[in-house]
Amino acid sequence: MTTTRTSARPFGRTLCAMITPFTEEGALDLDGARKLAAWLVAEGCDGLVLSSTTGEAPTTTGAEKAELIAAVREAVGDRVPLVAGVGTADTRHTVELARAAQKAGADGVLVVTPYYSRPPQEAVEAHFRAVADASGLPVMLYDIPGRTGTRIEPETIIRLAAHPRIVAVKDCSYDFLGTQKVLAHTDLAYYAGCDEHVLALYAVGAAGCVSTVANAAPGRIAAILDAFDAGETGRATELQLRATPLTEAMMGAGLPGTVTAKALLTRLGLPAGPVRAPLLPAGREATDALLARYEQLVAA
């Protein structure tokens, strides 16, 4: 196992779970996606995750997902890795999306635990192996039991780590002990998928983060990890705590991160557009609160 875990960053360090911009009519806004991706990279993101939870993967088609990858690749070139969300409740469909993502130009795939059917761990493991075997792209497992209803148990992740193309985990498990167990027994690159855990996971050996808050404040999220890398742990803590009010407003105020991110980006004049049903847009009061927390952060 490597002695400096953070040296293994297969998809970068500060990744943004990028929203998927739509036009006011609800169509895919590829020009907006190009502009937003270029801005995120210029502001400090060294990796982008497309079609994740924040990217409204459940309500975009396979064709739209492929078009989005191609458009963002055109905008950012080879400067940063692109990880494409391909997870569904259907193994065959997930395999199809993984192959399409490779063809469209992705550097890796994000694969969520199959949801709704709540498969047992043996079936969960078989699902991930099938997807990893189906394309030549490296795989980031996505452990988010609060949404899928099924955990990827630490023992399952440890077994999956032996697969040559399963290289990373986006961790939204809220099981800090389980995460440390996997870190202690594998070389998997862990990415904090919850913004309140960015520094905490990094401090115990994570490779970085996949941040929703980075849609609006990419430089502020990158700065937390920059400070830690420079040995300024007190400064890193200060920066994490400064971002907490915005993190709470975006992720802990009762609205999905997709909704809050798009509301804030629209106020900031960045490409976003509406959310797709069944999601509803943030109201005026919630959007005002988001903007106030954002302004508080950038003024600090």
Automatic annotation (TrEMBL):
InterPro entries in UniProt: Aldolase_TIM, DapA, DapA-like, Schiff_base-form_aldolases_AS
**Pathway field:** Amino-acid biosynthesis; L-lysine biosynthesis via DAP pathway; (S)-tetrahydrodipicolinate from L-aspartate: step 3/4
Query: So what EC number does this one have?
Result: 4.3.3.7
Catalysed reaction, written as an equation: L-aspartate 4-semialdehyde + pyruvate = (2S,4S)-4-hydroxy-2,3,4,5-tetrahydrodipicolinate + H2O + H(+)
| Pfam families, per database record | DHDPS (PF00701)
Lipid metabolism is among the record's keywords: no
Q: Where in the cell is it found?
A: Cytoplasm
State any GO BP term from the record: lysine biosynthetic process via diaminopimelate
Any one GO molecular function term: 4-hydroxy-tetrahydrodipicolinate synthase activity
Family of this protein: Belongs to the DapA family.
Subunit-level organization: Homotetramer; dimer of dimers.
Q: What does this protein do?
A: Catalyzes the condensation of (S)-aspartate-beta-semialdehyde [(S)-ASA] and pyruvate to 4-hydroxy-tetrahydrodipicolinate (HTPA).
Which protein are we looking at?
4-hydroxy-tetrahydrodipicolinate synthase
Which species? Streptomyces fodineus
Q: Which gene encodes it?
A: dapA
